[in-house]
Every structure is written in structure tokens, then in C-alpha cells.
Amino acid sequence: MAWWNAIGDIFRGGREVAEVFVENKEAKGQRQHDEKIADIGRDLASLDQFAAEFQSRQKGSKWDSFVDGLNRLPRPLLT
Questions:
Q1: Whether this model's pTM surpasses 0.70
Q2: CA–CA distance, 75 with 79 (Å, rounded to integer)
Q3: Confidence category of residue 45, pLDDT binned at 50, 70, 90
Q4: Of 49, 48, 53, residue with least CA distance to 64
Q5: Which of 33, 42, 51, 59 keeps 20 to 30 A from 23, CA to CA?
Q6: Virtual torsion, Cα 73, 59, 42, 77, nearest 10 deg
Q7: Are 18 and 27 spatial neighbours (Cβ–Cβ below 8 Å)?
Q8: φ and ψ at 23, to 5 degrees?
Q9: pLDDT band, residue 39 (cuts 50/70/90)
Q10: b/e sequence 29-60, b meaning 16+ C-beta within 10 Å
């Protein structure tokens, strides 16, 4: 039965050599899926950051809102 193992090892080695020249479709699909999931995670994190910024502003007084508005004016005016 050892020669069956040797033949199996030869074919497994050939598959690994072939993956050097031709991309493994399953691995490519898994990488693309992982990248999309990571992108979604980054998008959700940025949305949470924006939401936290506006939620903290609602707790302040009218004066705090006025000063926040003044602080946000220079950026659009410079562009």
C-alpha cells in the first residue's frame, strides 16, 4: 500500500506546481469574499464613528452647537 501513497504524493505535488502558473479559483473566491467582508467592516466602523460624533453633539447646549458649527465653517470655505 505504500506505492499508493507515493502515487498520491506525486499527484498532490503536481497540483501544487500547477497552482504556481494558474490561480486556484476556490482560493481566489475565498480571498475576494474575505476582502469584501473586511470592506464592509471598515464601512460600518466609519459609520459608527460618524454616528458617535453626532450623538455627542446632541447632548450639549445651544452654545456648544453654535461653536461646533463655527468650527466646521473653515473647511468648506477653504475649498
A1: no
A2: 7
A3: very high
A4: 53
A5: 42
A6: 0
A7: no
A8: -70, 140
A9: very high
A10: eeeeeeeeeeeeeeeeeeeeeeeeeeeeeeee
